[in-house]
Amino acid sequence: MIYFTAFRSPATIEQLLLSIRSLVEIGGYKGDILVLTDRTRDALVSQLPNLEPARLWVYNTEPTDFAGYVASKYAILDIDWAAQFQPVAFMDPDIVFDADVAPLLATIARGDRIAAPLEPFSPLATAPSVGSGLLQLDGLSPRSAAGVNCGTIGIPNIAAHATALRTIRTIILNRADAFGRENSGWIDQEAANYVSFRLADFDTASITPYCRFGGWSENDTNVAHRAGLVHFWPAGKSEAKVAAMRAYRERLDALLGPI
User: Fold this and answer.
1) pLDDT by residue (tens digit) across 148-159?
2) Collapsing DSSP states into helix, strand and coil, what is residue 171?
């Protein structure tokens, strides 16, 4: 099962729709999709004509602040029936799938650790966005290790990894309550990287080759380099991400022809 979170902002919902359409139409995904959202299932079904309604699950929740939004991906722990799926993969809504996702999911399923792609440009020792501050508070030295990006998380088995996932959520919410729920910076990335370094030892090798980051330049989204997915978080604000995602999808359609 692949799952997403998307709340409130019309631009974020449009990202979600673009992402799911690419997952089904280009990624060739045949499995179930879960969306944690404040929108109704009927509203999403009506905007996803190429997705069989029986494959779409919706879990309604309504976080009200930044901390709630970024912690919402870990609400998968509260959905008892989600544990029947193996593997489970979380995807941010600002992702366009550009190749068959079966190899990516098979790689996650074969693993025994939580998987996330490397951010090679974010050193754990110095980049606050991937938890350098938390590691420094503990007197730890990750040396030259790079952080991971938690916009894509592969979970081979929810029950087996529940402790790590629950610990990440607890750190997010505890630090948000202590330092401000609306001004918590990169706390979801910080918490996940901290737990990976201290406890879970995320697998950074297996799915990194399938993931690219798009939004800095046209070279980031060259359709000749299709590998699996492009994460558009560098593109900026929600509306800019939608525009970048649409432009990339148009280039894919021009290359691949009618779906």
Assistant:
1) 999 999 999 999
2) helix
